[in-house]
Design goal:
By secondary structure, the protein is mainly α. The chain is 71% helix and 0% strand. It contains twelve helices and no strands. α1 packs antiparallel against α11 and α7 packs antiparallel against α8. It is elongated and about 75 Å long. The two termini are 33 Å apart.
Length: 320
């Protein structure tokens, strides 16, 4: 199959635009996913996606659903650009004389893309999770204070007040106390999630997208790329959700009342299995599917339609 060669700058711009549009559309669902996944043995604040969003709006206002969005919007451009461009890079170098890639080579290309993206993904997720989960912890403390007042407990003397922190403050504190390693806490768990995700996602998307191509030399219609991205994204998201739960728990710096702490991937896996059961590994799975499906559907449409080529063509050509 002879694909049209797209320049690296165009790939990076396409990936960045795709990430920005996708994140803006689905961030509130991602916030709900993080809060649902982090609920443990303490006070369970939310029962479902809708319950989480409604309570968030009531307690934090409409923009409470976008806590941590600034971090994502800042770093999703390089993250998605690296992911999509790296997959293309590895697919190009693994292909032989333009021949169709075997499934194994497609999976290897996805593995390479997933490995490359964690350079940006890990610190982005680390900061985003702290901001997203802060509202849940604050709400839990307020509820505990209210319950203590009703029971006339001395602990009810002072109600809990949430202290808002910013991504910049968290970054400075992590760098001061732990150095650059502080921003990369949960790197192993992020690799454990993103590499298998890319191994599943990219080959599945490529093969689904091919079904909509009438001619091997012509791109599939945009709606085929969108649906292919949605199906491949949601399938891969649910498949690796257990790894996402582990990653979210390990990267959370603050804990709610009576919630466990973890020393590593194995310790986290063991405690979740023993104390919450196997179903806990699929907490937030439907939220994650709802986030990833449109996110990657939009990403692939933007990437494959090639907005960047149009923008670059609009720039004045340098004279020889």
């Amino acid at each position: 199959m002879a694909d049209k060669q797209i320049s690296l700058p165009a790939k990076l711009i396409n990936g960045g635009i795709a990430g920005l549009i996708g994140v803006t559309c689905v961030f509130p669902i991602d916030l709900a996913k993080t809060r649902l996944q982090n609920q443990q043995n303490g006070q369970r604040m939310y029962t479902s996606l809708s319950d989480c969003l409604i309570k968030t709006i009531r307690s934090e206002g409409y923009f409470g659903m976008y806590r941590g969005a600034a971090v994502n919007l800042t770093l999703v451009t390089p993250e998605k650009a690296i992911k999509l461009a790296a997959n293309d890079f590895f697919r190009h170098h693994l292909s032989k004389d333009g021949k169709k890639l075997t499934l194994l080579r497609e999976m290897l290309a996805g593995c390479g893309a997933g490995t490359c993206q964690v350079i940006v993904t890990t610190p982005m997720e680390m900061l985003k999770i702290q901001l997203q989960d802060a509202g849940r912890i604050a709400a839990q403390k307020k509820l505990m204070a209210a319950q203590a007042q009703l029971s006339s407990s001395p602990a009810a003397a002072e109600p809990a007040v949430e202290t808002r922190t910013t991504a910049t403050q968290i970054t400075r504190e992590l760098l001061r106390s732990k150095g650059i390693a502080g921003l990369y806490k949960g790197l192993g768990a992020t690799l454990l999630r993103d590499v298998p995700f890319s191994i599943v996602y990219f080959p599945l998307f490529a093969n689904l997208n091919k079904l909509g191509q009438k001619d091997p030399n012509v791109k599939a219609p945009f709606y085929v790329s969108f649906l292919s991205g949605c199906v491949a994204g949601s399938t891969a998201a649910v498949a690796v959700n257990p790894c996402d739960v582990i990653k979210t728990r390990l990267q959370s710096l603050q804990r709610g009342v009576n919630e466990d702490t973890y020393s590593g991937i194995l310790d986290c896996t063991k405690k979740i299995w023993q104390r919450e059961g196997p179903t806990a590994f699929f907490k937030g799975a439907y939220c994650r599917a709802l986030v990833i499906a449109p996110l990657f559907g939009i990403a692939q449409v933007v990437y494959f339609v090639g907005i960047a080529e149009f923008l670059l063509d609009m720039l004045p050509k340098r004279r020889a």
